[in-house]
């Protein structure tokens, strides 16, 4: 057999000869020869029609019938009015009036009782501490005449616990002048130059004052974080630096925690729970504030 020949389909079909009625034979004699036979070929294995599957609706209905027939794990309660029926009995409740004073007293007792078992919330408290002593009086004027620029004072911010401000005094050797504070919080891996502002009315004939402000910022807000800075004084005669005798000016951030509930109780009772016995209030105030006073300037730092 050639590869172009069509394979034989013998054996795949069965031949069926059908008989004809007399009327059909009479009609066919006019058109066809009497020797022609009616032959039909049908497959040996006729396909069996597949049973039609259930629709989604039928399957869902069947599933619901099975679920209803199974014993329920929980009993569900329905009210008659939700299913269209009438309630057997209806009772109405009216809120009674209560004394507001008693409610406040009861609420205060509950709050006090809960406070005994509530985990205290620790609120952070920040404080900045300079690691250098600024000169004052004659020492300050001598440093200004020698270095042309010197840090005069440093004080913490009253509104922002992470910030502090300072004053720089410069020698008036040029009308056009500028002061910059170069600071770092990562040990000089990076630094920024912050321009200082001229203090109006600070000229005393030979010196002028400039003010600046620095602030700790995340991620350098942990206990022991440091800000190091130096001062650059730019004039038409050249640039001059102040760096605390080559040790840089350093300010350290101190962090402490106070229990919020303890502080709230202290405020509510008007008593200082942290005050040791036998220590007078005026002595405590003296311990809280430490003053650094020079001849011409005063610097205060809260502890």
Automatic annotation (TrEMBL):
GO molecular function annotation? glycogen binding; protein phosphatase 1 binding
BP GO annotations: regulation of glycogen biosynthetic process
Report the source organism.
Gasterosteus aculeatus aculeatus (three-spined stickleback)
Taxonomic classification, please? Eukaryota, Metazoa, Chordata, Craniata, Vertebrata
Q: Where is the composition biased (Polar residues)?
A: 1-18
Instruction: Give residue ranges for domain CBM21.
Output: 143-252
PANTHER family of this UniProt entry? PROTEIN PHOSPHATASE 1 REGULATORY SUBUNIT (PTHR12307), PROTEIN PHOSPHATASE 1 REGULATORY SUBUNIT 3F (PTHR12307:SF40)
Q: Where is this region: Disordered?
A: 1-42
Annotated protein name in UniProt: CBM21 domain-containing protein
Residue spans of biased composition, Acidic residues class: 22-37
Q: Name one GO cellular component term.
A: protein phosphatase type 1 complex
Q: Which InterPro entries match?
A: CBM21_dom, CBM21_dom_sf, PP1_regulatory_subunit_3
């Amino acid at each position: 057999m050639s590869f172009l020949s069509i394979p034989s389909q013998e054996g795949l079909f069965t031949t069926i000869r059908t008989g004809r009625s007399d009327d059909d034979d009479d009609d066919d004699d006019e058109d066809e020869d009497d020797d022609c036979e009616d032959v039909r070929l049908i497959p040996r294995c006729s396909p069996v029609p597949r049973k039609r599957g259930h629709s989604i609706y039928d399957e869902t209905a069947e599933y619901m019938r099975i679920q209803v027939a199974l014993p329920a794990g929980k009993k569900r309660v329905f009210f008659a009015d939700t299913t269209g029926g009438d309630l057997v009995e209806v009772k109405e409740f009216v809120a009674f009036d209560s004394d507001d004073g008693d409610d406040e007293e009861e609420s205060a007792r509950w709050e006090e009782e809960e406070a005994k078992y509530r985990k205290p919330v620790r609120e952070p408290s920040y404080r900045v501490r300079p690691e250098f002593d600024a000169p004052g009086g004659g020492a300050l004027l001598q440093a200004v005449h020698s270095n042309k620029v010197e840090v005069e004072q440093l004080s913490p911010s009253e509104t922002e616990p992470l910030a502090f401000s300072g004053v720089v005094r410069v020698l008036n050797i040029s009308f056009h002048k500028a002061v910059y504070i170069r600071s770092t919080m990562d040990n000089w891996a990076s630094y920024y130059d912050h321009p200082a502002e001229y203090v109006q009315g600070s000229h005393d004939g030979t010196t002028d004052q400039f003010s600046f402000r620095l602030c700790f910022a995340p991620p350098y807000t942990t206990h022991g974080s440091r800000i190091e800075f130096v001062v650059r004084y730019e004039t038409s005669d050249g640039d001059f630096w102040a760096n605390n005798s080559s040790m840089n000016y350093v300010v350290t951030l101190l962090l402490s925690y106070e229990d919020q509930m303890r502080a709230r109780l202290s405020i509510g009772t008007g008593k200082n729970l942290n005050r040791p016995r036998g220590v007078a209030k005026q002595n405590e105030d003296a311990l809280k504030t430490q003053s650094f006073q020079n001849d011409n300037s005063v610097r205060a730092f809260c502890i």
